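Sat 14:20. Reprocessing the chain from the morning session after the first attempt stalled halfway. Input below, unchanged.
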Amino acid sequence: MSAKTDKQGRLYIPKEVREKYGERYHVVTCEDRIELIPVADDSLAAVRAAAGELRDASVEEIREDIEDEAEAQSEGGR
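Finished this time. Tokens:
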């Protein structure tokens, strides 16, 4: 998908994208590109949803999950 800015520098985001990701974005500038990161309408609800299964986990369980994931990623990169 490509997009073009208008004379005022506004970027048109297609309806399908807005419906999927919302209407607010952080603009992140990288060395060779820009990225649009969706911003949740309710940031606290988004954090709670992302941390859902962690709510009842102990610190040790969380630490083990992180170590297991890091190990799996390092083995996948070999």
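The CA atoms of residues 57 and 63 lie 10 Å apart.
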